[in-house]
Amino acid sequence: MNVLVKTAMRPVSGSRPLAPPLPQSLEAERSILGAVLLENRALNAIVQRLHAADLFFPQHRLILASMIRLSEAQQPIDPVTLMDDLERRQELEIAGVYRTCRASRSACHESQT
Q: Which of 80, 9, 71 is nearest to 40 (CA)?
């Protein structure tokens, strides 16, 4: 499966950019995902302001979309259920979920201290 990546620069006819690069923060995205892993109810507040497509990193988009699917199915959101969901959709390797989940939980924990 091909994953579309948001382009940071949108070309106008030729090589001139239409807009400056989009802002991105690996730590912010990891903290968002980590917050959901630590407290599943945090997803309710997150989805009111953010969609999976709003995230810059493709693996984070896949993980957030999986979290939303799990929530809609009234399933717990944790690394095991995320890996199962992504594996069923053949997106596990693309998402790098184990490494990303570990980093997300760590980023969220660090922001709480």
A: 71
pTM (2 d.p.) = 0.69
**Taking a C-beta distance cutoff of 8 angstroms, is the pair 43, 96 a contact?**
no
pLDDT digits (tens, 9 = 90+) for 47-72: 999 999 999 999 999 999 999 999 99
Higher pLDDT, 8 or 48: 48
Domains of the chain plus CATH, in order, are: 26-112 (1.10.860.10)
3-state secondary structure of 17: strand
How is the chain split among helix, strand and coil, in percent rounded to 5? 60, 0, 35
Q: Nearest-CA neighbor of 32 among 19, 20, 48?
A: 48
Which SS3 state, helix, strand or coil, does residue 97 take? helix
DSSP three-state, residue 51: coil
